[in-house]
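Objective 1.3, modelling of assemblies. Example input:
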Amino acid sequence: MEKRIQRVKEQLHAASYKLTPQREATLRVLLEREEDHLSAEDVYLLVKEKAPEIGLATVYRTLELLTELKVVDKINFGDGVSRYDLRKEGAKHFHHHLVCIECGAVDEIQEDLLGDVETVVESQYNFSIQDHRLTFHGICYRCQPKKD
Amino acid sequence: MEKRIQRVKEQLHAASYKLTPQREATLRVLLEREEDHLSAEDVYLLVKEKAPEIGLATVYRTLELLTELKVVDKINFGDGVSRYDLRKEGAKHFHHHLVCIECGAVDEIQEDLLGDVETVVESQYNFSIQDHRLTFHGICYRCQPKKD
DNA sequence: TCCAGTAATCAAAATCATTATTATATAATA
DNA sequence: TATTATATAATAATGATTTTGATTACTGGA
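Predicted structure (tokens):
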């Protein structure tokens, strides 16, 4: 954990920003809740536990900054709020999501399923892919009708 | 064009809604601008040319209704506004998009590239897929650096 | 150490997309 | 025609996000 914070600190410095206590607290929340897809509000409430004097605007600015530095991904599942996801280190690509229409859970797929598809798109449409976003909507394993 | 309007009219009636002049004007805008990905505001401004007395809320309600009937798809590219796309008739699946990070153009891919991927996801994650959304971000053919 | 200049912060107000409300109009039905 | 349900326009309200203005913290010289 400390190592990752250290690395983000270096990234910030490289872009001539500083790792302030507020930014560090925000980052720690993101690291602790790595598996979740937190909204800005969620992050704010969690950061407040560590640093009660922080403001919502600061959290927004920090998340935006981290997005810019590609430390986090800003995702939008169409539910009206932006969510923030820590990028796996070294991951070039956005991972994929399974959104359950029953319970609303969002699961992740880490593997890159799109290798072949990308090749087709690149050549057929002469489109130079930087990133992709793939979301499946359906019913997750937890909500599958039980057969008994 | 008239045929498609007629068909939507039937769909509306089947769900006990009516094709009011405002709804028809909205639908006509969508048909005329089929290739675009219009925001609610865009649609509103265009409909206003035909039917100046229409209100923004009515456009929103109409778009919502058409989404419900699966006449249009409501898409979110993460730019803060929802966009509305007429569904190709008979299309079961959402089509895919190529979003250019240079010029902002949004192109469409009609073919379903995800058949194999879906099979993997369904079996491996025990996830019953209803729909999918795939967006590639990159540089479109128009913005490719010319080699001269 | 003191100071100037910049960066970062908080709190509050502003903005933007969207939704809810309300009163009115229009159409469908008895 | 009287009654009821639907749809509408205009406006207000909402909720997420951004901007603003005043304040504070940090940095590198005199």
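Residues 2-14 of chain A form the longest helix (13 residues).
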